[in-house]
What we know:
The chain is an alpha/beta fold.
Amino acid sequence: MPKSDIEIARLAKMQPIAEIGAKVGIPEDALLQYGPTKAKITTDFINSVQKKRDGKLILVTAITPTPAGEGKTTTSVGLHDGLCRIGKKSIVCLREPSLGPCFGMKGGAAGGGYAQVVPMEDINLHFTGDFHAIGIAHNLLSALIDNHIYWGNQLGIDSRRVAWKRVMDMNDRALRQITNSLGGVGNGFAREDGFDITVASEVMAIFCLAKDLDDLTNRIGNIVVAHTRDRKPIYAKDLKAHGPMSVLLKDALMPNLVQTLENNPAFIHGGPFANIAHGCNSVVATKTALKLADYVVTEAGFGADLGAEKFFDIKCRKAGLKPSATVVVATVRALKMHGGVAKDDLGKENVAAVKNGCVNLQRHIKNVKQFGVPVVVAINAFSLDTKKELNAVRATARKMGAEAIICSHWADGGAGTEELAKHVVGLVDSGKAKFKPLYPDNMPLIKKIETVAKKIYGAKDVAADAKILNQLSDWEAQGHGKLPVCMAKTQYSFSTDPALKGAPSGHTVGVREVRLSAGAGFIVVVTGEIMTMPGLPRVPAANSIQLNKKGEIEGLF
């Protein structure tokens, strides 16, 4: 019986974190160590390397997610190990996992098999406390809002128009909508409230887009938390919240250093939702890695229609990043599902279904190329994949002007991605990348929405009622018109209907709501039902997680 991810991780021969840092020029005195195998990189050291030349940035994205799995994080780690195996100086930059999915259904986010980052248990649980710091900073702002209302409400906040919920890093559907301040006069003025999961907080998005502490503080100050009765916005800085919130986040903003199973350096830092936010690790971690390595591998959440688009149009635009290559991860199993095969039948050879499902891969390759970034397809191999099925994927990729390379990193680690690593180096070093965002800053907000819907989702039209159009016009008049749009859409389809697999086109994208994330610096465009506080499944993963007699964690994947 094959070993589980946690069993493989537990057998890892980890090196002291100071030795890992030394591989990319980080001295031991620039590390704030959290035990022997994880550390934060000091702000002073980060500032000291800013004049160094940047390395090359490689994005790992994927086809549209299915229950069959694609393995984006596993491929990111595997590619990084492959680059190191062929003698390249590389760093992988990943998001931190949220506790909610760990104890729910999705699982962790530290890779899998022999392409993992370790210590796996620490990374998937409390790690260095970043998410706790973000949650506390967010909830401090919540407390300051209600406290201001309680002590006379000098700003004239309309308690019906408080837009700032509370957060916690756990899936708890019972808290989605609550009433706070019950119990009498001493407890304040009762009002409707609710909780989001911490990764959906605007503080998380700000944390991952801020370039330094000053930028973090300014962005926090620009959060719109509520409105007055005459619709005047109330900002976090009006409540003098930005100073103390930044104090709580000061240490958290330093990137975390860990290692892969093959003892190669990995930065794991931040983790915003890929629906309601941009779904990428922190700008601080990515830009620091670019100063220390020749090649930096990073990933973006969900499929390329969400993750890659937001990486390019939000993170790269805001941070001035210029990616040199994109890896689109696909599996034969997932392509079969896009071709109409049920999950229980994925073990049977079905070349026709693979070919039908490859329309999804084709759309993603085409979309990424619109940004001027060369593409390679990584086929995350499974033991039941057949030669004919793999050849069908290869043929589709070549028809789109991209190579498809079979990778066995889950079973073989970096040795299973050497061919991919060599191809990626060739793409990067060719200088073919001519990165450009999908739309210019000056385009009207509704046109930005239409551009993403038509050019990325294959939609025919966008439906937005007068209320939404007026809101967008108001924000443009207030000076927010140059912000990018952050599309909140189901990850399971190019359309807004999660049941539509493959590459649907000609549909209408209905805009249900728009939200201003003035601190993060984007407009959230909600299409369909987007859950910002998930619930636990009927049988949560938490039911199987426990300590054994040795004090070791069992059941964590």
